[in-house]
Amino acid sequence: MQLGLDVDVKRLEVDKLRKGKNKAKEDLDILKTDYKRLRLSMRTARLGKTSEQWRKGKQWN
Questions:
Q1: Which UniProt keyword terms apply here (predicted)?
Q2: What is the pLDDT of residue 14?
Q3: How far apart are CA 48 and CA 40, in angstroms?
């Protein structure tokens, strides 16, 4: 009886950890997508220049 309860508790703990891991992966994917969109809009607005390029007045390629 005790062993069966221990197995159930461990199974619940594993499920909880697995759900947390999946949530973290989803959050990371969302952050990556947001970062890519931000970089694209910075390039489009020509904000992605380095400070050196801003000083020299070069255009972003």
A1: Coiled coil
A2: 95
A3: 9
Indicate whether this model's pTM tops 0.85.
Answer: no
The Cα–Cα gap between 35 and 24 comes to 16
Q: Which residues, 6+ apart, have CB-to-CB distance to 60 below 8 Å?
A: 43, 46, 48, 49, 53
Helix/strand/coil (H/E/C) assignment for every residue in 1-61? CHHHHHHHHHHHHHHHHHHHHHHHHHHHHHHHHHHHHHHHHHHHCCCCCCHHHHHHCCCCC
The token pair at 61 is: 């390629």
Residue 24 structure tokens: 């973290």
Report which residue type is found at 25: K
